[in-house]
Amino acid sequence: xASLDSFIRSAARATYSAYRSVPIRWRLAGGSAAxxxxxxxxxxxxxxxxxxxxxxxxxxxxxxxxxSGLVGEFxxxxxxxxxxxxxxxxxxxxxxxxxxxxxxFFDSSxxxxxxxxxxxxxxxxxxxxxxAGTFNQGGYxxxxxxxxxxPVGTVKLLxxxxxxxxxxxxxxxxVFLLLGVVGGAILALLAGLFVSARAMSPIVxxxxxxxxxxxxxxxxxxxxxxxxxxxxxxxxxxxESMLGxxxxxxxxxxxxxxxxxxxxxxxxxxxxxxxxxxLANLELLTEELTGEHQHPDDDRHAPLDQQRDGGDEQExxxxxxxxxxxxxxxxxxxxxxxxxxxxxxxxxxxx
Length: 351
Hints:
The protein is α+β, with helices and mostly antiparallel strands. Helix content is about 70%, strand content about 10%. A hairpin with a 2-residue loop joins strand 1 (about 80) and strand 2.
């Protein structure tokens, strides 16, 4: 039992999933067609039942009327001549041919077939057991009556009509009803597709507009609005508000980026002037230091035998170094910003 319930739930989920995967246009059209099919099928069933009852009632009334005519025509007017019945075969044939009927007269006492129309019958050659009544036999509806004959006695009248005519008529009615139901469902499906396509046209227009916005990347474009104030119009307004908010956010972001670019450009300009000044001062200081250190460098690279010449040359070098330090200090006083880039030894000497 549990496995059966699980199978039913799985089948229901699969059916629902398959239904959700169908496009909404076909779901709308299919729903309208299914509803139309149910309505038309119910209507056809009711019409079929009423038609069947009406046709069979008319058939029975027609047969009853024909039997009443025969009884009125032959009751008490037929004459027995020995074991034969004097019947007017011409009239019997007229009655029989008009409705494709089978007419028989049987002797009530022994069931012997006395007269028939059409002649040489292949069916109903035996007298029925009941003396009066109605029954179906061999695809015929049979009516039995008892008639009086001259000089005395009675005979059984059997009047049978084929049911095939009624069955064919009802079959044609069923075919027409079936065609009407199927045709109505197909028309409802086509009409549903047409109506759903017309109803979905605003959504198609919104989709095209969204694709154009995606292609141009311009959220400021106007979206189409349907004339009717319905859910689609509300969707269009919502999408337009969303695009407006996105456009505003995009503008704010662009403004912020422009401000950042301006700030970077201004900062670059402001930093470029001090750096140029520092570089120029460094170049000037380098040139001064290179010129002042030229002779001490030459003295350091002189041969050792010249450094042994005595104290006069050492005193001259010391005096030259002191003079160099004095010039550096004077230059630093004239250029205060150079004191921040002097090496530690120079700063110490300056103090």
